[in-house]
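Homework help board

Subject: predicted structure for assignment chain

Our instructor gave us this sequence and asked us to write out the predicted structure in token form, then describe one feature. I got the tokens but I'm not sure how to describe them. Can anyone check?
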Amino acid sequence: MKLFPFLRPLLEVSGAVLVLIFGLRLLTGFFTKRSRVYQPTFERQFRLLFWPLLCLGVGLPFLASFFFLGTLSGYELVLLTALAAVILGFSVPALVLHAQYYLRNLHTTLAFEPKQNILEVYENQVRVPFAQSDLVRVEWVTCASKQVFWTNYHYLRLHLRTGQVLTLTALLTNLEPVAEFLRNSNVEPRQRWFCFL
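My token output:
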């Protein structure tokens, strides 16, 4: 099929670049010490946004048919509306959660080393002083469903004796080890369908 003769070389080059990037990442991973300092990184954001963006990328060209609304039959309009609902229903909640988490933790740094009993939070590169004994309670909010794009979006809220509330989101790192580390600090686990802040 010679419909798009430029498409095959473009896909081959894209595949080769992806293999090269992930190969180099794997090799450099062997020689670097794993960091215990977490910030919102491109890699973490890409991992969280991969499926929602892929869904949008596949579905948006079909949604362009709405521009030809006058030429569509009733059957085509129903199918197009159903497709739009599925695409937007799966992608938009994850994108909204990601935007919320990004705005909340853009300038947050988490230093976490459980073996050395280190849990430090920095806001705008300034350490927020607290000890584990200063935690009044900890909210651990996770997604109730395990089958949707926004499953990996969860957060911890640390309520300090001073009244300050620190929010750590999944944009920093997987927070399950942190919640496990804080298990003796009055952790209140909660599940929601959408873990909005």
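Reply (TA_rk): Your tokens look well-formed. For the description, you could write something like this. The radius of gyration is 22 Å. That's the kind of observation they're looking for.
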